[in-house]
Amino acid sequence: MLLKRIVYSIVALLAIVSFIWLDYYLPSRELVKIVGTEVKRVDGDGVITTNNPANGQIRDVYYISANRNWQNEDGKIQERVFRNEDTGWGFPFYFKFNSADVQARAKAFEQSQELALVTTYGWRMNMFSMFPNIVSITQATADTNTYSIRRYLGIGAWASAFIFITVWLRKKFKKAEKE
Questions:
Q1: Which positions, given as ranges, span the membrane (predicted)?
Q2: What is residue 72's predicted lDDT score, i.e. its pLDDT?
């Protein structure tokens, strides 16, 4: 009985941790109006400023400011900031090498004031100055679909795997109880 609880607890913990991991790395899409673009020089500690001098490898990070196309209940438009960095050959495997091109496209959307559909991964966490990374930007209309089939297929496969594991464990424990 104790072993059964421990195993189910481990499976539940793995399910929670892996779902959080998937939620971060699977692509999501948002309909936005781009209102600004900028480039900041950063190192391992974050943005380089007088209070945070450069002390390591330096890179340029593009940022894109946008407004969501919908409003909150109080009528205010919600602002969003996105990061635009290459993923290169490393993890996550988006093989994105065109952040400068994406930035130029964002600048064009900023000037034309057209709606854009941005595909991103990651979360916005104010406390840690984390921004979702833009993978692509495409032209959109107000009725553009924001569903991400890769996201839903990934979460569906994840759910199927954990349902299979749970059913398999239940059968194993019932078989062990009978013996």
A1: 6-26, 149-169
A2: 66
